[in-house]
Amino acid sequence: MASSSGTARVTGPVARVRRQLPTSPWLFAAPGLLVVGVFILYPFVSTLVNAFTDRRTLIPGEFVGLANFRELLHDEMFWIGLRNSTLYVLGVVPALVLLPLLLALLVQKNIPGIAFFRSAFYTPVVASIVVVGLIWVWLLDERGLVNSLLEAIGVGRVGFLSDQWLLLLSAMAVTVWKGLGYYMIIYLAALANVPRELHEAASVDGAGAVRRFFTVTVPAVRSTMVLVGALSSVAAFKVFSEVYLMAGPDGGPAGEDTTLVMLVQRTGTGLTGRVGYASAISVVVFVVTVALMLLVLRADRKEDA
Amino acid sequence: MSVAEKVRESPAVVDTQRRPKRVTDEHGRRIRVWELALRYLLLLAVLALTVGPFLWQLSTSLKGPTEDIFSSPPKFLPSDPTLHNYERVAETVPVWDYALNSLKVATANVVTNCVGAALAGYALARLRYRGRKVATLVFILAMLVPVESIIIAQFTTMRDLGLNNTLIGVLLPACIASMNVLLMRNAFLNLPYEIEEAAFVDGANAWQRFLRIAVPSVKGTLAVVAIFAFMGAWDDFLWPLIVLSDPDKFTLTIGLNYLHGTFANDERLAAAGTIIAVAPLIALFACLQRYFFRGVGEGAVKG
């Protein structure tokens, strides 16, 4: 019934308005409101409610108060997930705030062939995370390209995907690698608005490239850095695919590389899924995400004062 | 191409001392030779890092069954390129059916997002009615909800509707994304109102004004919405992973994950599969770059 939702709901209002019936703006907004209501807002409310029940996939469940949240406190896997997702933010965000800015400075000048480089640097953004994940699983394989190169230069082979911490670090590197081009474009737009006079004045005053970077460029694009920080920290805390693909569905042996969203997916799906408990974890994900966003934005305002 | 360009450009740069043609920056200032050389060196290094992995994957997918893919030092080019792995991956998993499923979902996602977001965006930007501010707020709030935190409830909702394990179920939650609605709203708000007013005076109703005047003026934003809707659906992983359980219905990303999990030992197969998944998007990107870049700017400002 909802199968042809998109088109069916649109032709309805269209036909009616054409027949000069009284125009209702709600008909224009209806398809969008319906989709957002049923598939975003209702599930959001439903998550909040389910978090206080023991609902399972096939069992409606009953109100259990704070039992799910009390269980979280004693669930080792939850703490592992929270630790890994937090580490992910700490590892990924500084790199994604700084490296794309340096990259943007590198591709900013209109030298011959620069358009090609800009596009090429954006390619990882276009690829699916699954493609990216599998490419790096193969590159970082025990017998893959990176290890071949390391062996060729005499370093020896490294178990990127077998050690718990190296794997998490590798996943972070993949996230940074895939995000570079995206944030580079954001920074390019910001850099275009930095007045050239500032650089010249600093140059005349004898400031070198590094000095000018910190005294001219960084202050000029600071609000963009905050934006990138907010966007990347929210995305990093919700990390799922990279770690799922590199460590496997169970987050490696003993699940040591599980992230919070992986835990949500593992706990809440399938025929025996614990919907109530997974919802409680989801609420934590939501609260931390919002807190991260507010934290980054507040840091911005403090610097203003 | 870039290497060729560099080789071609470098001597020209050295010659700038004598010739009037000089390499200059965006302000018309000349760039020193050593600085330019350093820039190209860095650019090539980053190029190797960003595009290299894709090329390595392509190379692996073209290597025959007898060629050693684990050699150290590595061999970057296949000694005897073959499409054999692409035939084999199709024999192992129905990769073309998966691609077709992805194409169906992505195409439908483009249509629903363009139509739905344009209609709703127009209602928010142009039509006067009670509750318009509330409707705008609804879309803003919906945009702020992280999908990952409601994904289990989306799954149970889909079960209740009897649509889990269907491609419709994959499509629906993002088929009219709030961000696209707000992008379209902003695009309509930026149009001068006078033309539509004139049409209104001439007796055009809201639908006629929308279709004949407003929509043709926001084609650029519509293109951005279309491209990101296609890319979003084609690349999506977590939601289809949760909602699909029947291998017949798999989209390409889920199929690749399945291939990886089941036949993890055969790197050539996985490589061929990933190339099949990524090639269409790289082609799309090569043709429509400026819309991709525009989308980043507009999306970031909104997000």
What would you say this structure looks like, in words?
- The complex is a heterodimer of chains A (305) and B (303).
- With 305 residues, chain A is an all-alpha fold.
- Chain A has 14 helices and no strands.
- Chain A has one domain (75-304): MetI-like (MetI-like fold).
- Helices cover 73% and strands 0% of the residues of chain A.
- Chain A is globular.
- In chain B, helix 4 (95-125) crosses helix 8 (178-189), helix 4 (95-125) runs antiparallel to helix 11 and helix 5 packs across helix 8 (178-189).
- Mean pLDDT of chain B is 85; it is low at 1-21.
- At the A-B interface, helix 1, helix 2, helix 4, helix 5 and helix 6 of A face helix 1, helix 2, helix 4, helix 5 and helix 6 of B.
Keywords:
heterodimer; A: 305 residues; mainly alpha; MetI-like fold; 14 helices; disordered N terminus; B: 303 residues; 2 domains; 70% helix; 0% strand
Question: Which series of helices and strands of chain A comes N to C?
Answer: HHHHHHHHHHHHHH
Q: Which shape of chain B, going by the Cα principal axes?
A: globular
Helical amount of chain A: over 70%
Largest sheet of chain B: none
Most extensive chain interface and residues per partner: A-B, 104 and 111 residues
- N- and C-termini, Cα separation of chain A: 56 Å
What level of helicity do the residues of chain B show?
55-70%
What is the fold-level CATH name, i.e. the topology of chain A?
Answer: MetI-like fold
Q: Beta-strand percentage of chain B?
A: under 5%
